[in-house]
Predict the structure.
Amino acid sequence: MATRADAMAGTAAPAYSISRVIMASAVGTMIEWYDFYIFGSLAAVLSPKFYPSGNDTIALIAYLSTFAVGFVVRPFGALFFGRIGDLVGRKYAFLVTLSIMGGATALIGLLPTYKTAGWFAPVALLAVRWRAGLGWTTSRLPAAPLAAGAPTMAATADRLGKPDAADTVGAPGAAEHG
């Protein structure tokens, strides 16, 4: 029975140069980190805008907690968009995740302040940072395995439990797979 990797080996994939893949990965990573850098750098300025006034320390801690949400949801975005990259294509996943990051950053500028919207403002900010976190790591995820020369998630999953003869030659227990 042929595996998915065997079936895909016969198809002609577009040849991308490694420098082009690394450049795309670097640009995506730069955009991601720039977004998080700006959001973190403006913590002292933006925290009183989105949280109740009176105790600036509590507002700053709440703002930084909102900042942390982006880091917490990163693995979930990587799992979701990594699979999308395997199924649909890494270029498509890359463009979608960059759009998510850019859209989330633009939405922060459009959010109302606490004075105008009350508790809706910090809840909306939390939702936007959650969305940005989903798209954050995944912007470089589609290009990173290509840059490292690693197989895709699907090709790796197809090989699990199916060692090739080359993988088992000289390995302990190789006769068991024979």
Observations:
- Confidence is low (pLDDT under 50) at residues 155-171.
- The first helix runs from residue 4 to 9.
